[in-house]
Amino acid sequence: MGVILVKNNKGGVGKSWIALQLAAYKAFNNEKVLILTSDSQNNILNYSGIKVEDTSKKGLEDMLEGKPYILTKLRPNLFFLHLQGYKVKGNLDEKFKKRINSLKDEFKHIIIDGSPVMDLDSIFVDVAEHIIVPTFLDSVTTSSILNLLKKTDISKIRAVIPNRVGRTRIEKNFYTFLKDTLTRSGVFLSIPINHSAVILKLLEKGTLLWESRSKKLDDIKEVFIKVWGEIDDE
């Protein structure tokens, strides 16, 4: 299925967690998946319960420079390429496209946990075949999504996922607004992923969504299954 970018121009909306769960679904279905990140915190390691003592070497930057790099195995079929600290020089566009093409020969899916603060952001959008957008249901993040729809090739945007949603009337109103807007644009809007103590426990334990048997997570799992349905249909 190629390269999938998880993107929102606003930080803190849960890009890393959503990228991880999206990737893990396919890995748990015996498909080889790589996650790479431009998030300097490398939160995907923590969310997976994996400790890497030193992330200053042999990561994304070294890969782009053609130097030896290390892929961290998070689970069977699921691998992660960390960000070192962003020291790449020269033509990033050319370097990234060259390296990503070689990785596509090894992995069925490449999930990019994208960060808007990096110079790689526009390159990620360019190479992505599918874009997934996490969001909050508030005015600032909704405006960010509308801006994203205007500036990005909308044919690449497969789904918008409302995340960390409460039960307020304001959030319900923004959800209705997004549903109307995205339906006209042909973009899938998932049901909201609500604030959940069960998810917080998963994060604390480094447990993936697909490793839990809690029935309380069934609706959330269905979100990712349906998003993959949108990707696989293309």
From TrEMBL:
Gene3D superfamilies with a match to the protein in the record: P-loop containing nucleotide triphosphate hydrolases
Coiled coil (UniProt feature): none
Protein origin, superkingdom: Bacteria
Domain AAA, chain residue ranges per copy: 2-153
InterPro entries: AAA_dom (IPR025669), DNA_Partitioning_ATPase (IPR050678), P-loop_NTPase (IPR027417)
Taxonomic placement: Bacteria, Fusobacteriati, Fusobacteriota, Fusobacteriia, Fusobacteriales
SUPFAM superfamilies on file: P-loop containing nucleoside triphosphate hydrolases
Protein name: ATPase
PANTHER family assigned: COBYRINIC ACID AC-DIAMIDE SYNTHASE, P-LOOP CONTAINING NUCLEOSIDE TRIPHOSPHATE HYDROLASE
